[in-house]
Amino acid sequence: MERNTWQTPWSYREGWIIVVGLTGLGVVWQVFLPALEAQVPRWPGNLILGLIFITLLLALHFFFAKSLLSKWLSSVPAAVTSAAFYCGLAILMGIIPQGQANNSTLISLLGLNRLTTSWIFVLANAYFLSGLGLATLKRLIPFKLKNAGYILNHLGLWIALTAAALGSSDLQRLYMNCYEGQPEWRATNQAGQVVELPIAIELTDFKIDEYPPKLTLIDNTTGRVVAKGKKNQYFSVEDSPIQLLDYKVEVEKRLHSAGLIGERFEPVNEMGSPPAAKVRVTHTQTGETQTGWVSSGSFMHQPYAFKLSDRYSLVMLPPEPQKFQSDIRIMTEEGQQMQTTLEVNQPFKLGGWKLYQLSYDSQKGKWSTLSVIELVRDPWIPVVYLGIFMLLAGSLFLFRDGTNKKKAQ
């Protein structure tokens, strides 16, 4: 006998209908109530909201365990459909650039370019975390040791996702432009607003390690790099001799910092002095040999090309950064001073803040007197890490239990 829709117990059919309904409700709120922002309150409002959510789950478990809502949320169909809803939005976040203006009016209207603050995501989050929380409580109370793996796994996931959602409003991501010799205590947030900090940062020195510059051929008519087949040809000056189409290029002299004097380059140790190289170019078909100079140029000097024929010229590309770092001095309101070096992916921790080396004045390159530092503060991250560690521990328990069962069989 075929079961009617909404006939208890509910199954996957009702689960997908609920997902569609929540999506429609989220779209309606997002489009017709734009003033009603889906924003989690800041501390302590987010803590209060979290405690209310936990209280509701406990009430459903202890006092309304036999209700239709409680039975549905803790069921397998609800878990599968809510997880699919949640993961589908996560995939959209990876496809659609977040936090940026979008050319599509529909995407902007639905808030798909800022999903974490959209009503669709809030409803999906609440639906998934409600079911996950009730399913965990069913195994947690009463506690049995054989359920330890399941509890750690599911409770850890619930803690990590809930803490990430509640802590999103307390997350601060600021950007500070630091110039050499000028202490700075003001930063800007992602909305472009100026934020004054209790610390000041002074850039004492900025350093860049660069890769050796590369040589290539360009078409004199189009100015484009000449390709061999479908692949552009770039070769480091350290790979000399190199073959570019029918030209064999040998580097006879290389200068890391040079200045043009007449038609030749000489070593110069001044700001903006670009690298240069003296090259011997031999046409492999005719045997004709030419000697000349190439230079990548800089923000102060024009690049210098070596014209090989009416069609081709040899050029040097600007050196690419290999590693860059900032030597900084940090001053606190209490009068403390400390010095450290910031490198990419090597943050410095200070009073709940993490300082990251973000960028610099790319036009000036190694002569940059500007260092852009990112300051990140996320007070909820320890709770998120706790949930992740519990999730990993639960996975180990489940792996052990599965191994023991296999041995027993």
TrEMBL record:
It is a multi-pass membrane protein. Pfam families: ResB. The keyword Transmembrane applies. One of its GO terms (cellular component) is membrane. Residues 296-364 form the ResB-like domain. It comes from the Bacteria. It is found in: Membrane. Keywords: Cytochrome c-type biogenesis, Membrane, Transmembrane, Transmembrane helix. Its main location: membrane. The chain crosses the membrane at residues 12-32, 44-64, 76-96, 116-137, 149-168, 380-399. The keyword Nucleus does not apply. GO terms for biological process: cytochrome complex assembly. This is ResB-like domain-containing protein.
